[in-house]
Amino acid sequence: PAEPSSALLDGLNPRQREAVLYRGPALLIVAGAGSGKTSVLTRRIASLLETREAWPSQILAITFTNKAAGEMRERVRHMVGHASDGMWISTFHSACVRILRREAEVFGYASGFTIYDSGDSRALLKRLVKQYEADVMGLGVANVAARISKLKNELVDAETFSRSVNLSDPKEALFLTIFREYSRALQAANAFDFDDLIAQTVYLFRAFPHVAEPYRRRFRHILVDEYQDTNHAQYALIRELTKPAEGIPAASLTVVGDSDQSIYAFRGADIRNIIEFEQDYPEATVVLLEQNYRSTQTILDAANAVIANNFDRKPKNLFTAGGAGAKIVGFTGYSGHDEAQFVADEIEQLHRGGMEYRDIAVFYRTNAQTRALEEILIRSAVPYRILGGTKFYERAEIKDAMAYLIAVANPADALAMRRILNTPKRGIGQVTETQLANLAERNGITFREALRHAADLGVGPKVAKAITGLSDLLDEATAMTAPPAEDAAPIPVFDVLSLLMQKSGYVDALRASRDPQDEARLENIEELLAVTKEFQRNNPDGLLIDFLTETALVAAADELDDSSGTVSLMTLHTAKGLEFKAVFLTGIEEDLLPHRMSANEPGGPSEERRLFYVGITRAKERLYLSLAMTRNSYGETSVSAPSRFLAEIPAELIDWRQSPGMTGPGAGSRAAGSLSWSGGVGSGPAAQKPKTEWTNRVTGKVRDNGDLELAIGDRVRHDDFGEGRVQAITGTAAKRIAEVQFDTAGRKRLLVKVAPIVKL
Ligand code: ATP
Ligand code: MG
Fold this sequence. Notes:
Layout: H1 6-9, H2 14-21, E1 26-31, H3 37-50, E2 59-63, H4 66-80, E3 88-91, H5 92-103, E4 114-116, H6 118-131, H7 141-153, H8 158-164, H9 170-188, E5 191-193, H10 194-207, H11 209-218, E6 221-224, H12 232-241, E7 252-257, H13 272-275, H14 277-280, E8 285-289, H15 297-307, E9 328-333, H16 336-352, E10 360-364, H17 370-379, E11 384-386, H18 396-409, H19 414-421, H20 430-443, H21 447-450, H22 461-480, H23 493-503, H24 506-512, H25 516-538, H26 544-552, E12 567-571, E13 580-585, H27 604-616, E14 619-628, E15 630-633, E16 636-639, E17 654-658, H28 685-688, E18 715-718, E19 722-730, E20 737-742, E21 746-751, E22 757-759
Parallel strand pairs: 1-7, 1-8, 2-3, 2-6, 4-5, 6-7, 9-14, 9-17, 10-12, 10-13, 11-12, 13-14
Antiparallel strand pairs: 15-16, 18-19, 18-22, 19-20, 20-21
Helix pairs in contact: 2-3, 3-4, 5-10, 6-7, 6-9, 8-9, 10-11, 10-12, 15-27, 16-17, 18-19, 18-22, 22-23, 23-25
Domain UvrD-like helicase C-terminal: 297-577
Protein name: DNA 3'-5' helicase
Keywords: ATP-binding, DNA-binding, Helicase, Hydrolase, Isomerase, Nucleotide-binding
């Protein structure tokens, strides 16, 4: 084959180059964080295309998030131009949805199937658990959901499970019943849950080789990033795709990974997949990358020191040619608020020093930690966005609107139908809902069809009218979504959603409400309408079903939008594969990291350490580690202890600071190795800490300064920063921001609405 152009190989080290140029059946790239694994994968694709060894359609690349897929596609396009169109670069889930949409009819699903996210699955399981009173047997919803997910990731379906289960154990027997009913309900709704997407594709390929054959022929080059986090089902899928098709050899497989970054064992990820790769693919070539191109040596030294405490690994040391860089900054706060204030202040300082907000990230172990952070960031007018957490698509009003669309696209989806039946309130009660469900069941029709028979239910004329009204509305919307005649453009999803939201009375109900939250809900609906507009711009021929597919797959990290200048907040799990100039790791305390749940699981603490390692290695230039001596949760204050992981970092790498009000031995020792709260909480800090009531403890609401009249030149007093003068005012209403030059605390940006300030 032709040599790829030198531009493609530019700057690569010899081993990266070898990996890009390798041509053969199987390649394993194992390397530490930031050593260019993802970059090499990207260049490999570009080089295959550039030399015309492969058509774009012959390439399947699997990434961890849709966001990462988008980035990789962009980079390849940048290197080889539009020769890259038609590649499949996607997550496991998206690739499987694409396959299932085309092929699922072979095994009895309609191509308009619904994808249940974890909230949907739980709603369904909740009903079953209640119906069988399973929680008295110790089978709670969360427990059942986790177990079913795990089994599906092991490719064990309800029938397979029934063959191994001990039926004389009543708990096991009941679990089997629920697992079965759950699977049946999904099938009846023409729906797949997230785990099904992969497991069912594997079943499909195994049961119908003629369906798998064209994919084996088509994909000549399969590349998988973050291979250490594949679970058994994903592994099996790759196995299926890399079997030889008739008359042609198996596809060439490239996988890259780092066993030190395996953080998904709880989801069934199997580190053995990477360790045993050489056995599964005996002809495999292994390339090791060692040099790190992301972080300073200080950051790498910390990462190396921490991960060295895991015994179940091959020794490996990250190094860079880039120099030591700044020291790590450690901070010990008295409370979670102190910690958050530190984070906000440092962010402002970095920003003033010229760093963009988008180059800064704050990580935490659990979503619950965001509340204090958010409060302070809002107050300091630091623009931020949360990845994961209560995601846009998990909000109730968005789920309502989506349920309307799903009810239109997939008439079999009873869950969606039940959700919208009396939303907004139209007087259709629980009894009527059950009657409709029974009617559907008895006659073997869908829930939606049952609406047409409202007259047979024996309900009052008002209720019957409401049901018929909904039924007619859905019919009207369905007619709009029919595939368009040739040459015609489809009716935009925007129009369909507008119709549904208007005619159903949903929007009117929110407008009429006096609940201030409903105003925000209305804004969210408008945001969703904007999303449909954008979708149509990017996909002029996109149908409703395409829109639903796209939105169902938006994973946590996908909300990250580089173009926006915001600080990114996310859990450590979401941070994988990403990089930022400055990273704040918060809550580095026992019970948070390692998380208290991990103590009971085999390998739990090691996995938590890998999570910490992943966090550290995201940082390019600046790393901050912070913790709080006390935390409030559920209205109670508890005392926390420094994470054992902190003591694993050589003390000379960290420059420790502490809350201004803190003194005494326990208040943040200078040496990480001796960190402990020997001082105790009762003595000292509590009394010295200036009290700041930002929130009304009774209502939990933040103070509202919305109406405060402020002009440039006004003097103000801030609870924490003291007195200062207003220098500039931007934005209006809830988004009004004042820049204040404080006499001693420096210049700060404050969100007027919530800032604890008074005009003097
Ligand atoms: P992770 O394990 O965190 O996923 P990775 O191994 O995939 O990391 P990349 O994200 O590919 O690493 O690369 C890390 C950084 O190093 C990126 O900013 C990338 O552009 C840069 N980089 C990679 N290789 C080189 C090189 N040869 N010269 C200069 N920079 C490089
Ligand atoms: Mg990577």
